Amino acid sequence: MWNTENFQRLIEEPAYRSIIGRTVFMAVLVTVTDAVLAFPFAYFMARVASRRVQTLLFAAVLLPLWASYLARVYAWILILNHNGLLNWSLQSIGLPPAEIGYTNVAMWIVFSYIWLPFMIIPTYAALERVPESLLEAAADLGARRWRAVRDVVLPLALPGVVAGSIFTFSLTLGDYITPILVGGAGSSFIGNVIYSNVGIANNIPFAAALAIVPVAIMAVYLLIAQRLGAFEAL
Amino acid sequence: MWTRVFLRIWAALILVFLFTPIVLIFVYAFNTSNIQSWPIPGFTLDWFERTWEDAEVRRALSLSLQAGLTATALALVLGSCAAFAVHRMTWFGREVVSLLFVLPLALPGIVTGISLNAFFAFGGIPLSTWTIVVGHTTFCMVVVYNNVVARLRRTQGSLIEAAMDLGANGFRVFRDITLPLISTSIVAGAMLAFALSFDEVIVTTFTAGAQNTLPLWIFGAIRLGQRLPEVNVVVSFVILVTIIPVLIAARLTGGGATRVPAAGV
Fold first, then answer.
1. What does the pLDDT look like over A208-218, one tens digit per residue?
2. Radius of gyration (Cα) for chain B, nearest Å?
3. Scanning A50, A206, B71, B213, which has the fewest C-beta atoms within 10 Å of its C-beta?
4. Bridge-partner residues for B43, per DSSP?
């Protein structure tokens, strides 16, 4: 029997729409955050640091990527809890404690942390390929440093940033472990609903219909990324 | 001038951001208190002993090792054979197969997970250690394949031709020329595959049945907020066990192997 019942349920029930909305919003937010954090770092790595420092930084970025995913999420539970490192640091500089453990803010921080290396590496690779001669040409034509960065470096580095965003976006979109561990009540992602429909409710057809959502979103995202030249920067 | 100062400070802050959480876990593993608060009141080695004596942790460790080693062994055979087939020969559908091979790494783990789960349910196969091994092999194979294919592309065909001109047969060429050239890439692939498997949660959740691997045990304990002192120790151990093979792999391939992004796992 073939029917579209599961897809109808997906579209019609507001609860599922808000879960899809939350997941996509978080994926966008994390992607933007990581791009902002990664760009100056990658710029330093590619264009300021010496060869030796460059190699060291490269290893330093990759190492956390390979250290256990669960370990890194767990570390943030320790940092963000009421008596954790964050509140201790805030207190020691005379600020009131921040109660952000088990909230959407906690999820935002943790996601931005675990996927950051995925943004740094392609951005760095793209920045490293920008020829020095182009910057010299811009300077010869009278462009100040900032102008040259904005008009020459940024457009050339964009495919790298978009390549990184494929990872940060898709990995956030498909995650369900971080929402379980650091999100509070009402922080379910698409993945959590899929997970509970396979494990607890045992409704695999609905889970499969739901799994189409991130796959479809990613298909659109990849098409746009390809247009922006991200695939050559991977 | 000021731009450089800004960039330097920014880079330093990002490094602090990247490494503080990891260092913190190692510190907490020595915590004398069983309450996880900062700063820790003192240092002790007790939790290492307690964790080692915990039968549940040991069972989980042995299952993780068993699944990881078996999946790595299978991935070595399947991944390197596939790499040879794709590199050496041209055949109908080769491009599609090479794309399909890399796909499990790009798909969200949850999709691979429910697919396998549905497949086992459909075939009436009960979940066991073997279903975990099958699940892990799907992504372990990809790292081995990627590594070996990358190395094969860089080896010169002329070496093989020279050996053949000197009268070596196919087997001799493989043993004396090809294998020595690609051996480090195979070892590097195996190291990365084991590291991925040892740390995997998502696919394992859907293929493990009632058993716990080490990451599943950690996940359960964190979720319930129970036995956190032991979690600190186990988690520190898992970080070391996954990072050391990766460092060896990086050494063997001059850094190339570890660039493969582990998306979806």
1. 888 888 888 88
2. 22
3. A50
4. B31
Whether A70 sits inside 8 A of B238 (CB atoms) is yes
Residues in chain B within 8 Å Cβ distance of A60: 15, 18-19
Q: Is residue B52 part of a domain?
A: no
Nearest CB to A180; choose among B15, B114, B223: B223
**pLDDT given for residue B236 in this prediction:** 93
Its pTM stands at: 0.86
Q: Is A51's pLDDT higher than 80?
A: yes
Chain segment A175-199, per-residue pLDDT in tens: 889 999 998 777 889 888 888 887 6
Considering only CB atoms, which chain A residues are within 8 Å of B223? 180-181
Question: Distance between CA A193 and CA A188 in Å, rounded?
Answer: 7
Here the ipTM equals 0.89
**Residue B97 and residue B9 share a domain:** no
B186 plus B67 within the same structural domain: yes
Of A37, A145, A214, the CB nearest to B14: A37
Q: What is the distance between the alpha carbons of residues A226 and A166, in angstroms, rounded to a whole number?
A: 10
B21 and B105 within one domain: no
- Residues B181 and B81 both lie in one domain: yes
pLDDT, residue A25, reads 95
Tracing tokens 């509070």 back to the chain, one arrives at A184
Same-domain status, B89 and B137: yes
Query: Which CATH number fits the domain that encloses residue B143?
Result: 1.10.3720.10
Q: Which domain holds residue B71?
A: 57-259
Of A41, A48, A70, the C-alpha closest to A135 is A48
